[in-house]
Specification:
The protein is an all-alpha fold. The chain has one domain (2-185). Helix content is 79%, strand content 0%. Helix 1 crosses helix 2 and helix 4 crosses helix 5 (106-116). It is globular and about 75 Å long.
Length: 192
Amino acid sequence: MMIDAIIAKVKGFIVNPVESFRAARPDTPDIIVPYFIALLLIHTVMTAIISLAGISVMGMLSPMMPGFAMPVVIFFGVLIGGAIVTILFSLWLHLWVYLLGGRKGLFETAKAVIYGMTPGMILGWIPFIGFLFCLWSIVLQIIGIRELQEMSSGKALVAMIIAVMVPLIVVVLLAMYFFVSMVSVSPIPVVP
């Protein structure tokens, strides 16, 4: 029965997200947590399988680790990292949702994040086109914030843009800093 309910929710959030979010308003943690675990396991297993194909194409990824161990490392990294990132992103997004007027609570924001992740978790592992499903997940999360926090589309969009762009800008600035640091420390070859 639980598997049928999860499959029905997956189909609903992909095919008819607005109605699915409205129907999900009364959902409690005992419904959402198994749904999230199922999504995370599917994504984790498929990512590990894809990493096997990548290893066969690229050879051994690390001289210290045998090639067959990399999918295991990836499996646990994606599983644990996925759970941590989802929790942290829900908290971060909720800060902006709250500041923009969303007063239905953190749980509703987390619900929007988890349910909105459906296409990205189910199909985001596909090489070269997976990012499209991840973008669709962001759109679904905006719809989820709008529906579950009962905010305007504009405020939900602004909350998501801030929640995504601020960390992205920080990562880009850090990458630029480390790149400049590495280049400025590296010796410059002198041509005789």
